Amino acid sequence: MLFNKALAPSDQTNPYYDTLWYQKNIIHEYTHLPFYHDLYSKPQGYKDCPSWFSQGLAEYFAMFCSTSSILQKYEWALSEIKNMVKNGDGYLMFVGGDMYYGGAYIVKYMYEVYGQDKVVNLIKSNALSFSQAINKELNVTSGEFEDEWLKWACKEFDADYEQLYAPE
Q1: In whole angstroms, what separates CA 56 from the centre of its chain?
Q2: What mean pLDDT do residues 52-72 have?
Q3: Which of 98, 94, 74, 87 shows the shortest CA–CA distance to 159?
């Protein structure tokens, strides 16, 4: 209980900033430490990491790998991403535009489809660009990466891939 009071002081004026908000944000910020170390300490390799990946990785760990209470608190924001996919706006360009919640779902897809080792290899890759790192480390083109994302997202959110995204 003392830890929670230190995390979420009682003199707050906005109830949104509660203990769960502080916990999520501490997890989020601490996730950046090894990520940025691995990403930016490479002697060569890409430096054009998209914000949906760097912020999404931190949000993925904070929301999907911590407590169910944190996930429940942010379900309203995550449901906006679900709605984007169901409304035909699930392309990476749109979902990644919400670098925190959209990014968290894209990273969740990456972990579930490609696995932890490949995501770590992507972070540590010496490829010259993020797009080239996707090709090299995940063994897919950028187009295949997005198409697999759309298939995964449709399955995850019970949307009709064929109707919404399949090429005619």
Answers
A1: 3
A2: 96
A3: 87
Q: Which long-range contacts (CB under 8 A, 24 or more apart) does 76-85 make?
A: 77/101, 78/104, 78/105, 81/105, 82/157, 85/150, 85/153, 85/154, 85/156, 85/157, 85/159, 85/164
Whether the CB-CB separation of 61 and 109 falls below 8 Å is answered with: no
Which amino acid would we find at residue 10? S
Q: SS3 of 68, please? A: helix
pLDDT of residue 122: 93
How many degrees, rounded to 5, is the angle at CA 102 between CA 26 and CA 84?
A: 145
- Domains of the chain, by residue range, sit at 47-164
Give the pLDDT band of residue 9 (cuts 50, 70, 90). low
Q: What's 126's DSSP letter?
A: -
Q: Is the pTM of this model over 0.85?
A: yes
Q: What is the pLDDT of residues 117-155, one digit of tens each?
A: 999 999 989 999 999 999 999 999 999 999 999 999 999
Rg, C-alpha atoms of the chain: 17
Q: Which two tokens stand for residue 98?
A: 């919400």
> What is the C-alpha separation between 113 and 107, in angstroms, rounded?
10
